[in-house]
Amino acid sequence: MNNNTNINNYNMTANIKSSNEQTLTSLGFHHIQKNIADCALSYLGKRYARELKPMTDVHLIQMRLDEAAEATALVRFGASVPIPSLEGMETIINLLGTGYLFSERDFSHLAQFLHSCAQLMKYMDSKSGVAPIVSRYASSMILMESLRSEIERCIHNGRIQDQASKELVRIRKRMTVHEERMKRKLDSLVSKHRSIMQEQVVSQRNGKTVLPIKKEFRKQVKGSVLDESGSGQTVYIEPAELSGLQMELSSLQAEESREEMKILGDLTSLAESYSREIALNTETVGILDFLFAKAKYAAAIDGRSVRVNSNGKVKLQRARHPLMGPSMVPLDFSIGYTYSSLIITGPNTGGKTVALKTLGLLTLMMQSGLLVPVDERGEMAVYEQIAVDIGDGQSLEQALSTFSAHIRNMITILEQANPSTLILIDEMASGTDPGEGVGLSIAMLEELHHRGATVVATTHFGEIKHFASATSGFENARMEFDTASLQPLYRLRIGEAGESYAYSIALKLGMPQHIIARSKSVVDEALTKNMMQDVAKESQSQTDSEHHTTLPVSMEHTDSIEQNAHTTVPNKTISPNGAPPVSNSAPAPIRAFRKGDRVYVAYLDQAGIVSEEEDNRGQIGVMIRGRKLKIHKKRLRLHISADELYPADYDLDIVLESKENRKKRKLMGRKHVEGLQIELPPEE
Q1: pLDDT tens readout for residues 209-223
Q2: What is the dihedral of CA 604, 607, 613, 619, to 10 degrees?
Q3: Model confidence at 571, in pLDDT bands (50, 70, 90)?
Q4: Which of 65, 336, 430, 566 is deepest in the core (most CB within 10 A)?
C-alpha cells in the first residue's frame, strides 16, 4: 500500500449524488458533522469533520469502517493517543515558500509540532499489532530530526539564543557591557539630583532613559528635554552624560536585530527545504485526528461496524438514532430481501418519522465511514442517491402549499429514482383531497417500484396499506401501540399494518363520546358515498363501451354460448320468454374469488358476499347489505371461503336473491307466464 497516495487521496472520493443540503438537513447529518468536529483537536481534523460527505464506493466505505473500528477499539480500551494540536501550523503551511520570514513564535510552534510528531510515531508503532490499519498512517510520517534540533538550538521559549551564531554572541556581550556602564552612570545621576526630581523613578521616552525633574529646576540638569507631564510641573530630561552611552547601545541593538533577522532567514530557508515533509506530516496528523474524532464519537454513541453491500439489502437489529440518546426505543429493520418497498403506519407521535430518519441518517453515516449505533452483524446497503420528502416544505416566499411542496419533491424524486436510490417519504397523500392523494401516492409507489428503487414511506391511509398488502414487492409495517394505556411503544413491527387510533386517543384526551360517535358515522357515510359515486362512474363507462363496441364472436363458440345462456343467471331484466341477451365476452379464467365467498372491504369496514366473479377489468360483484357493488379485487380480502360457508350442493340464490325473485324463477322454469319479470338489485 502506498501510504502517501492514500493520504493525498483521503478525501478525493466519489460522493453520494444526493448529498444536497435539503437531504442532509432533513436527516440531521450536519449535527453529526458538528459532533465529530467537537471531538477533533486540530484545525485540520475539524475541517475534515465539517467537510465529511457520504461516499458510494463499497470497498472504500468498508475500508473506512474497518479503520474506524480499529481506532474505536483503542479509544474503548482507554488509550490516550498523543495527537498534535497543530497550533500555529496552519499559518506555517500557508506561508511556506512565499518569501515570508517566520518569527521566533512560528519556529516555536514548528519545533513543538515536530516533537509531537515523533511522540505520535513512537506511540502508533507500539500499537501496530492491535491496530495495523491506523498505525500505517503514522508510519508514513517523517521525523525531520535535523530541522527540529536546529530550531531548538537557535530558539528557546520564543527567544533567539546567544549561541545561534558567533556574531550574535559578540554583539550581546558588548551590549551587556554598555548596559552595565549605563546603569552605574544612571545610579550616580539619580543620587546627585534626588532633591529636584519629582519622583524617585527613572523613565523611558522614545527609547531613551530620562529623569523626571521639577520644572523650576530644569536648568540645573544638563541634557535634552524629551517630554513634559500633562500638568506641566514635570519635565523629562535625558542627561548629557547618558546620551553618548545611549547612542552606542542603540547601535549595538540595531546590529543585534540584523543578526537575528539573518538567523531567522537561515531557519526559514531550512524549513522551506522540508516543505513537502512538513505538509505530509501535517496532513497525516489531520487525518489521524479526524479518525480518532470519529472513534470518540462512535464510542459515545456505542457505534459498530456493519457489512456493506450494493444490492439494496438492509438488516439492522436494535438500531438507534444517534441524536436521540439512550431514551430511544431501539429499531429492528430489514428491507431488500423479499420486498423493496415498506409502508409504515401507526398513530401520530408513534415514531414513524423517527424510523424514517433513523434509517436515512444511519445510511448517510455508514456511507461516510462512520460506525453506527446498531447491534453486531448488521448489514446495510450503499446507495448512489438518497432522496427524502420529510416535512411540509411550505414556503411563503415561493407561494408553496404543503401539497405543492410535496409534489415538487416527488417530481424531483422521480427524476432520481433508479435501482441504486433510497427514497424516504413521510406522510404520503397528505395535504390534499384524500381520494386523489391516495391515487397519486399509489401510482407513485408503483412507478418507483417499477424503477427498482428502495422505498420506505409512512401513511395514515388504509387504501395505501391494502395496496401494499396485495402487491408483490411491497410490505406493511406498523409502529406498536398500547391499546390499554393508549401510549405509543415506538417499536416497529414489519409484516403488519397499523392503525392511527385517532378515536381512541381523542377519547382518552377528553373528547366527548357523542362527538366520537358522530365522527365515525360521518366518515362511514362519506366513504360509502364516495365509493358509490366511483362505482357509478365505472359502470356508466362500461355501459357506454358496451353500447359502442361489438366484439367478434367465433362461430365455433356459438353453440356453447347459446347453451350457457339458459343456465346462466342474467344480470339484466329478463323478458317473459326467458331469452337473455347473448354475452359477447370470452369464457372467464379461473378467479381468486368465487361466488359465495365472504369478503372484507377494508375501506368500507364492512363484509359482503361475492355475487359475481371477476370481469376482465378486475371488478368483482359484491352484495353488501342488500346493495350490489362493483369493487376491484385489490380492495377485497377473503374472510371465509364459500366452501366453508355452504354445502357443496347449496343453492347460492337463497343468499343472493330475494324470496320473491326465487319464486318467479321457479315458476318461469315450469312454464311461460305473460308479463312475469325478475327485477335484480341495481349495480352501484
Answers
A1: 888 888 888 888 888
A2: 0
A3: very low
A4: 65
Give the three cell numbers for residue 609.
Answer: 358476499
Which residues lie below 8 Å from residue 592, measured CB to CB, with a gap of 6+?
A: 614, 633
User: How far, in Å, CA of 287 to CA of 35, rounded?
Assistant: 17
Q: Are 29 and 357 in contact (CB under 8 A)?
A: no
* CA 661/CA 199 separation, integer angstroms: 132
Which string of DSSP letters, residue by residue, matches 7-54? Answer: HHTTT-SPBPTT--HHHHHHHTHHHHHHHHHHH--SHHHHHHHHT---
What's the N-to-C CA distance of the chain in angstroms? Answer: 74
Strand-pair category, 385-389 with 421-425:
parallel
- What's the pLDDT tens digit per position in 438-480? 888 899 999 999 999 999 999 888 788 888 888 899 999 988 8
C-alpha cell at 641: 371461503
Res. 653: pLDDT tops 50: yes
Contact 601/627 with Cβ under 8 angstroms?
no
| pLDDT in the model for residue 206 | 80
Predicted confidence (pLDDT) at residue 9 exceeds the cutoff of 70 = no
Classify 457 as helix, strand or coil.
strand
Cα–Cα distance, 69 to 298 (Å, whole number): 9
Residue 50's pLDDT band, with cuts at 50, 70 and 90, is very high
The answer to whether residues 516 and 507 touch, using CB atoms and an 8 Å cutoff, is yes
The answer to whether residue 498 scores a pLDDT higher than 70 is no
Helix, strand, coil % in the chain, rounded to nearest 5: 50, 15, 35
Whole-Å CA distances, 227 to 195, 234, 235, 318 = 20, 9, 6, 80
Instruction: Give the Cα separation of 438 and 633 in Å (integer).
Output: 17
- Condensed to tens digits (0 to 9), the pLDDT of residues 234-281 reads 888 888 888 888 888 889 999 999 999 999 999 999 999 999 999 999
Residue 651 pLDDT exceeds 90? no
- Buried-exposed string 275-313: b where 16+ CB fall within 10 A, e elsewhere: eebbebbbbbbbbbbbbbbbbbbbbebbbbbbebeeebb
Q: How far apart are CA 6 and CA 287, in angstroms?
A: 11
| 578 φψ region: left (φ > 0), alpha (ψ -120 to 50), beta (else) | left
Q: Which residues contact 506 (CB under 8 A, 6 or more apart)?
A: 516
State how far the Cα of 427 lies from the Cα of 344, in Å rounded to an integer: 9
Mean pLDDT of the chain: 81
pLDDT at 141 over 50: yes
Q: Judging by beta carbons within 10 Å of its beta carbon (0-12, 13-18, 19+), is residue 65 exposed, middle or buried?
A: buried
Rounded Cα distance, 269 and 96, in Å: 9
pTM of the full structure: 0.69
Q: How far apart are CA 130 and CA 125, in angstroms?
A: 10
Inter-CA distances, 614 with 571, 584, 633, Å:
14, 16, 7
SS3 readout for 464-502: HHHHHHHCCCEEEEEEEEECCCCEEEEEEEECCCCCCCH
Q: What is the pLDDT of residue 487?
A: 67
Give the CA distances from residue 436 to residues 439, 441, 443, 457, 463, in Å, rounded to whole numbers and listed in that order: 5, 8, 11, 18, 11
Provide DSSP, 80-141.
Answer: -------TTHHHHHHHTTTT----HHHHHHHHHHHHHHHHHHHHHHHTTTT-HHHHHHHHT-
Report the pLDDT value the prediction gives residue 572, as an integer from 0 to 100.
36
